[in-house]
Amino acid sequence: MPSHNSTTWLITGCSTGLGRALAEAVLAKGHRAVVTARDADAVKDLAAAYPDTALALALDVTEPSQVAETVRAAEERFGNVDVLVNNAGYGYRAALEEGDDADVQRLFATNVFGPVTMMKAVLPGMRAKRSGAIVNISSIGARICPPGSGYYAASKAALEGLSGSAQKELEPLGITVTVVEPGGFRTDFAGRSLAQSAEPIGDYAETAGKRRKERDTAHGNQPGDPVKAAEAIIAAIEAEKVPHFLLLGQDALAGYRAVAEAQAADVEAWETVSSGTGFDA
User: Fold this and answer.
1) Rounded mean pLDDT of the chain?
2) Active site residues
3) Residue 4 has what pLDDT?
4) What is the tally of structural domains in the chain?
5) What global pTM score does this model have?
6) 248 occurs within a structural domain
7) Domain that holds residue 159
8) CB 214, CB 6: distance < 8 Å
9) CA distances in angstroms from 2 to 7, 208, 235, listed in the order given
10) In Å, what is the CA distance from 227 to each residue of 18, 77, 178?
11) Of 89, 88, 77, nearest in space to 34 by CA
């Protein structure tokens, strides 16, 4: 979606971190923004600072009625939604065996099915005008799959799979879909926003256990600047050719390349076996 006068952005999860930084940057550039959080009080300062261009709403993406009402209010106030950013989400740490079924269902409700509900809600309007952009915030975790983050990585991988197919369905209709994979950014993600299994299993102490909150020293020391991430996302959406995939952070670049090289090595090593599974002529 190349830059033009001003566009309307709908951003989920704006109370802190990347979502807030993006909301602030979008508004500072003169665009309109529907800024949302589960607690509307967390974003009312943005609406107060930009009374003509910001609309602050309470939104839990796991509640379909709230999603429908948010999109209706956005369209009523600003006429349309040009850019949807599915940013709301959280982390969950547990070894596969430790994962609590109810915790995992909540995680997927927020990280996968919430964004799906959001996309379904804005797409009729975007299809009607044959333009729009969807930005789905994933994570380098979907690719590097750290120990203890399997459920989180799976939720983001699911979002990426949906995004890839949606991109092919929507591009002919003038709508872009971009997956963003950030590395570590200095937000609340590894602090307040991180959940974990209640009962650790001793056998995983040296793998998943090392990344439990009580042993993790990353929080507050992440290399990424959310303000710069926000600028990068806006630049991508305003580019003449909007990317389908955007890595954010040197750590994300390094992680992506390491996984790609390891997979390529396996493909090459097993090429004969892979290609030898057809019926003999």
Assistant:
1) 94
2) 138, 152, 156
3) 52
4) 1
5) 0.94
6) yes
7) 8-271
8) no
9) 10, 43, 9
10) 8, 27, 19
11) 77
